[in-house]
Amino acid sequence: MDYDDDQRRRRILHSCSGPDLALPLYRLRDRVRQAYSLAGRRLPPVINLPTGVFRAILTGVTVLMSDEARRAVRTLPPFLDCLATDRAFANRDTQQLLADAGLPVPDLEQYLDRVLHYHLDAARAD
Asked: Please, how many CA atoms are within 13 Å of residue 24, restricted to the half-sphere of its CB?
């Protein structure tokens, strides 16, 4: 069956929560830390650094890193830029497709703990 571009676009399911259901990053961090702590995992302290300060530290310590580590660190700037801005990813087409099928997009609070426990159990099994 051939789909035109509009039909194909409507069949792509975006796995983001969308702007209305997204969990703020600091709340997600707190929930992940809580799950890890309850699982007996050691946690590093939370250090909130402005992006510019983090970049400066990275630039300074890269001279002490292996070539492989330096290459990995060079991939960070786009991610840091993304974290430094407010972003929201829409999922209107996905919501509509699911709504047409009688399926709401679940709230993250309904499944986050289950996903975290699954991850921690899988990591423990390795």
From this structure: 3
The sign one gets for the Cα dihedral 50, 76, 111, 43 is negative
End-to-end CA distance of the chain: 42
Residue 91 CB: number of other CB atoms within 10 A?
A: 21
Mind giving me the DSSP string for 17-74?
A: --TTTPPPHHHHHHHHHHHHHHTT---PPP----HHHHHHHHHHHGGGS-HHHHHHHT
Return d(Cα 76, Cα 48) in angstroms, integer.
Answer: 17
pLDDT at position 11 is 63
pLDDT of residue 36: 94
